[in-house]
Amino acid sequence: MLSSKIKSNEIVFGSFNKELLEEIIFYGIGLGADFVEIFIENTDNSSVLAEEDFITSVSPSFGRGAGIRIFKDKKDGFVSTNDLTKHGLMRSVSQAIEMLDITNNKKGESFKGLNEHRDYSLSKKNWINEVPSIHEISEKLLVSTKSLKKNNKIITRKGSYSRNLQEVIIASSDGTYVSDIRLHQTVGLNVIASDAQYRSSGSRRFGSSGMPNEFRSWDHEKAANDVFESSMNMLFADYVDAGQMPVVLANKFGGVIFHEACGHLLETTQIERGTTPFEHKLNEKIAHESVTAIDEGISEGSFGSLSVDDEGMEPEKSVLIKDGILKKFISDRAGELRTGHKRTGSGRRQNYSFAAASRMRNTYIAKGDYSKEDLINSISDGLYCKSMGGGSVGATGQFNFAVEEGYLIKNGKLTNPVKGATLIGEAKEVMPKISMCGNDLELAPGFCGSISGSVNVTVGQPHIKVDSITVGGR
Amino acid sequence: MNPREITTQISEAADSLNIRKWDYGASFSNDYSVQVDKGDAKQLKASQKQILTIRVWNKSNLVGITTTSDISESGIKKALNQANIASDFGNKNESTEFSPLAKDPIKVKEFKKRSPVGIKKLLTLLREAEVKLIKSHQSIKSVPYNGISESFFERIYANSDGAFRSFSKSQAALYLYARAEEKNNKPRSSGSVKLGYGVEDIDIESCIREASNKTISHLNYSSIKTDKYLICFSPESFLTIINAFSSMFNARSIIDGVSLSNKNSIGEKLSTEALNIYDDGLHEKNIASSPFDGEGTPTKRLCLINRGIIENFIHSESTARIFKTIPTGHAGLGSKVSVSPDWIVVEKSERNFDLKTSLDHSTYEGEFVYIEELNAIHAGVRASQGSFSLPFDGWLYKNGTKISIESATVAGDIKYLLKNIVNIESNQEVTTSGISPHIWVDELSITGDA
Questions:
Q1: By the CB < 8 Å criterion, does A85 face chain B?
Q2: How far apart (Å, rounded) are the C-alpha atoms in residues B190 and B211?
Q3: Is B44 within 8 Å of B150 (Cβ atoms)?
Q4: Chain A contact set for B144 (CB, 8 A)
Q5: Which among A201, A353, A401 is the nearest to B47, CB-wise?
Q6: Nearest-angstrom CA–CA distance, A62 and A46
Q7: CB contact under 8 A, A396 and B64
Q8: Which residues on A lie below 8 Å from B177 (Cβ)?
């Protein structure tokens, strides 16, 4: 009996928990589950806010919890708890079993014990001591907000930093037994500029994963200049006229359009729901031949990178679209079970209180052959979207994105700044219209909210040209 | 652990750490939810959650804060310690104190609290609802977004000055979003959300009917010509707009320079004088009501706009002190205390002589756009600038017929919108975020494909 090996009655981070985890999994399998997964998390987070020339908020937080997922056939039951004792975890397993209406006389799969421990945290245990102190962060944020004070039109200056250190243990009845430590840091600057009745804002956010010293090398002066320049350019901008027009989307955060408009539709959760138009399009052309799109979790330091996903699988580099042809979907364990698409190391969740789901990591359109100028020169009357705001995609695939900083294109040249633009369309109609890709691929960090909460991602692309899209305005 | 025990434990731990001034907010919840997919249970979910936020004041009266899910003895001590360390970085520019109203009596001592019906019952109800919704029309092929949930929670606020408040309640929710498809047409989707204190309070049939009717009504669609239109906002969509620009009434946003209002805006004319807006967190129809805010201040009804004029701002303790007034019960609990509205109530004032009362969404025969629901608020609203550009679901009414609008946005400026209200219908409707009648606005820009 595995239960005879129990040494601890509570999960202890940094300690050997194998026997306890095995007993809990064995308990679930013994009750008839097909599959049992335990995700345990310990977090140590901190955030700092600087406004004008003061630190106005320092917010540390810490916590721990477990998410237990049981599969029976294609159904799953998920229970989360803050109680990491043996009793608490067993109770959660029982609750999941009961929810799924599993009875003892229907035995599930066998469990042969956990595999050898894969410990991805070994080289990361000192990260918590290497990250900058609150004092160091505060000083740099205050220097940053001071840098934003470039003229008297700037009426609001903000700098923010957040650090998320997450220690996880993942164990499941297929033998998976993994530990990892994840570190994400972000820093952002915002301004509001005002002159008489005119107002504008500017913002930039930077982020990294797994790089404790990254904040120290952040070029706050360059960031401040970018934010200031953006707000000044937009201060007296006119509202854009609505209509159909060609647009050039800038590189880096311009990739949010692919993320929202197409990336989400390539997650197997969308196939499960029947809400993606691409469900039966594998190996068919869904985009212009100039488009190759990738989702991966392996670029060193990128915000969406991970050593192992939240289901214990190492991330792979997935070519989603190759020369316009759909090649792969982004899949997790439930996605593989329910849709047949192989897992891609993309099972992700915000924290222990969410079940993992197929989610994007670092997602971008690959670079092409054109310069930015080639793209702009090819348009006689259109819009250049230098900086994108947020966006969303509806239940039937329509998307919309706010343009934070836009310029009219007239006769192949950038002209006046314009505000109030929104890009509207549907992925399957827009993807074939991405006719030119630049040679200047860059990535940008962001947060993506979806079925399994908010996760760190990277969006990216080179400059791209969309032949025609609806631009909402006044 | 009961609320009094936690307070005692925090008090003892604070004493041992020589922390003399502290307060805390805590919440404990048990949530259960299910989703279904064509009759099968898809995901069944249960969670037990606890969150404790502790603030401490150091000897210089600077505040530090920590949030944790660990309420063991060691967890509480660690939280107090971390908050104490964080207090070294407390805001020297703006002090925080206990709310002067944290010991005032609260109006509502008990809320309706239902017993859990359990996951199996939730699953049965949702399965039945899904079947009925799919059967309600041949074009409805699936209900891709659905869920039913019940939550049971308790909230506490206490401080070292002897203030202590707690309440517990239950809440349930049902949402059904159907997808309809017809040959040679794009799929269309719409839905409905219903809340109740418990599952037995939710009108499931009405949710099914609404989701079905809305979805079917969008099957016959067409693009709309880009132009300026007379607009009728549904109660839900008007409340969405008001909530998105609630920084106009928010003292925190005003101090931070991200509001369209300023400290002197009380008494300023913001809209047609036919408009009254209140924030009424304790309204009997507000399922999510709470008797006190994050700082322990009692929740109350507050007039924000009276006959088109700004009458009050919403406050926390510190913003109220800066504005030389009293807290209004709209604070969170944080290192920098946030301020947010509870439940907006929109109504027609008695000064409504200039309204065009012939504009009634159920009888008017002229051309107008009916905005049923606004989407992507996070992306399309610039609250600090007053502008919005938002996709919406709605219809174009023309020559006595209505046709669903395919993929369009409405854009404008909030001050323009409020000043160009041409009618406020008489009947108020209860939504999940407040109460409002239908509101008519002239000359807003719509961008369509045509």
A1: no
A2: 6
A3: no
A4: 273-275, 395
A5: A353
A6: 9
A7: no
A8: 395
Closest-CA residue of A relative to B257 is A156
Q: Phi/psi zone of residue A91: left (φ > 0), alpha (ψ -120 to 50 degrees), beta?
A: alpha
Task: Give chain B's end-to-end CA distance (angstroms, integer).
Answer: 62
- Complex ipTM > 0.90: no
B141 pLDDT above the threshold of 50:
yes
Range B82-101 average pLDDT: 94
Alpha carbons A386 and A407: distance in angstroms, whole number: 8
Handedness of CA B122, B124, B127, B131 (dihedral sign): negative
- Model confidence at A105, pLDDT cuts 50, 70, 90, reads low
B 60-79 near A (Cβ less than 8 A): 64-70, 78-79
Answer for the pair A365, A255: CB distance below 8 angstroms, yes or no.
Answer: yes
- Partner residue opposite A63 with nearest CB, options B70, B92, B380: B70
Q: Where are the alpha helices (DSSP H) in B136-203?
A: none
Span B318-344, average pLDDT:
96
Give A372's strand partners. Answer: none
Distance (Å, whole) CA B45 – CA B124: 15
Find the DSSP H helices in B245-326: 251-256, 317-322
Q: How far is CA B448 from CA A26, A274, B445, in A?
A: 58, 27, 10
Report yes or no: B408 and B446 within 8 Å, Cβ to Cβ.
yes
Strand partners of residue B127? none
Residues B312, B265: Cα–Cα separation, whole Å:
9
Cα–Cα distances (Å) from B439 to A436, B272, B368, B370, B427, in that order, read 45, 12, 12, 10, 11
Strand order in the sheet with A318-322: A325-326, A318-322, A293-296, A362-365, A453-461, A442-450
Listed in order, strand segments (DSSP E) in A73-214 are: 75-81, 118-119, 154-172, 177-195, 198-209
Sort residue A304 into left (φ over 0), alpha (ψ -120 to 50) or beta: alpha
Q: Which of A44, A46, A59 to mutate to test the interface with B (most CBs of B within 10 A)?
A: A59
A192 vs B42, B85, B257: nearest CB? B257
Contact criterion met (CB below 8 Å) for A15 and A3: no
DSSP of A386-398: EEEEEEEE-TTSE
pLDDT in tens, A109-135: 689 999 999 999 999 999 999 999 999
Q: Given CA atoms A260, A265, A268, A271 in this order, what sign does their dihedral have?
A: positive
B141: closest chain A residue by CA: A274
Which DSSP symbol is given to B324? T
In this prediction the pTM is 0.91
Residue whose entry in the numeric block shows the structure tokens 């929202």:
A260
Does any CB of chain A come closer than 8 Å to the CB of residue B120?
yes
What distance in Å separates the CA atoms of residue B231 and residue B217, rounded to the nearest whole number? 18
- What number of CA atoms fall less than 13 Å from residue B133's CA on the CB side? 39
The one-letter amino acid code at B439 reads: I
Per the listing, tokens 């013994």 go with: A30
Q: What percent of chain B has pLDDT over 70?
A: 99
User: Which residues in chain A have their CB less than 8 angstroms from residue B145's CB?
Assistant: 273, 395
Report how far apart, in Å, the C-alpha atoms of A46 and of each of A349, A433, B14, B215 are. 19, 43, 22, 44
CA–CA dist A75, B41 (Å, integer): 6
Query: Using CA atoms in the order B113, B119, B120, B122, what is the torsion angle rounded to 10 degrees?
Result: 60
Rounded Cα distance between B170 and B317, Å, is 28
- E strands, A308-451, are 318-322, 325-326, 347-348, 357-358, 362-365, 381-393, 398-410, 413-419, 422-426, 434-437, 442-450
Helices B119-135 and A86-99: crossing angle in degrees, nearest 10, is: 30
